[in-house]
Amino acid sequence: MTSTPDTSSDASLDKSTTFTGWASTGTIELKKWSYHPRLLSEDEIEIEITHCGICGSDIHTITSGWGDLKYSPCIPGHEVVGKVVVKGANTTHQIGDLVGVGGLISSCGNCKHCKTGFEQFCPERTFIFNDTFKDGRGGLTYGGFADRLQVHGKFAFKIPDGLSGAEAAPLLCAGLTVFNPLKTLGAGPGKKVGVIGIGGLGHLGVQFARAMQCDEVVAISSGDSKREEAFKLGATKYINSSKPEEMKAAHQSLDIILYTSTGKNIDWSGLVDLIGNRGKLVVVAFLGESLGVPGYPLNVRHISISGSIIGGIETTKEMIAFAAKHNVRSLVEVMPMSNATEAIQRADDGHPRFRVVLDASK
């Protein structure tokens, strides 16, 4: 891989500036690579990155688990925190603000989805990496495993005091991914919520459900290794799903189940049996297999099964403020950005408790 700046897009590039990041050409091995960003518009800001979380979506994308890369080299990273160093005239951010950027960095602003706060469904949406800008200026998108990033100001969110950059970074994807469905499904007093999978997503799901004052927060995992941690995170009950007696004891006891695991050979019948009448199961993990869900209980007990992905601008703002106020924190291992390959391999191997965050100063 060369370090030649990218000139493949038709957009006007700012050749006086070079951004440098850690890029993939289709494997988990990342190498240093530089490119010229687009000329900054009046609606955009430039961020000096301090931290970037590593998400499973980064790994799936760069290894072509979801299809071939749209272009190469590709800089991943969509849980970005950094300081504003340049601002366009139309943005409300100030130089020096600590802001966060998630997977979505642009949308049309005019469609029915944008007008109702669901920018993540906009047909003209643009993702932070492995995508192309759709604002008429052209260009490729590069992510947060880098020193700098340009983004439309409305898709950068001020990080409140009390949240460190390392803690805040995973909230921009993992946190939003679990907060959005919990909010939408009415998690709160009077509800019993189960969280399946106590990992990068699930450990935040437990904390959010606790902070929403749900009557019960039930952590569900296939072993006992995370039992103690789950209670520290705020769970009121723990179920080892490999133990039939514990599953049976929870028969039809939950109003909402948040499914965050990426495990295979899932016993969907057993999970559906945990849901009470008119209960809901929402899948937020990207599964590698079809759902073998029994149909009968869906009908006779009015059970709903759905999926969910991130959230729009206002939901993101609400999530960050809620996390800061209620002490919802990502538990992270911080590694130097210069060790990006080692860090992403560690995340892929499932070793962290619970997220890996890259520190761009190292």
Question: What's the short story on this structure?
Answer:
Its cofactor is Zn(2+). The chain has 362 residues and is α/β, with parallel strands linked by helices. The protein has helices spanning 56-62, 112-115, 165-168, 174-184, 202-211, 227-233, 244-249, 268-272, 296-300, 313-325, 340-348; strands at residues 19-23, 31-35, 44-54, 80-87, 98-101, 104-106, 126-127, 148-152, 157-158, 192-196, 216-221, 237-240, 254-259, 275-283, 304-307, 332-336, 355-359.
Tally of strands = 17
Query: What would the average pLDDT be, to the nearest integer?
Result: 93
Going by CATH, the homologous superfamily of the largest domain would be Medium-chain alcohol dehydrogenases, catalytic domain
**Count of individual domains:** 2
CATH architecture of the largest domain: Alpha-Beta Complex
Binned, the helix content reads 10-25%
CATH topology of the largest domain: Quinone Oxidoreductase, Chain A, domain 1
Strand content: 15-25%
Secondary structure category: alpha/beta
Q: What gyration radius follows from the Cα positions, in whole Å? A: 21 Å
| Biggest sheet character | 7 strands, mixed
The DSSP helix count reads: 11
Q: What is the top-level CATH class of the largest domain?
A: Alpha Beta
Overall 3D form: globular
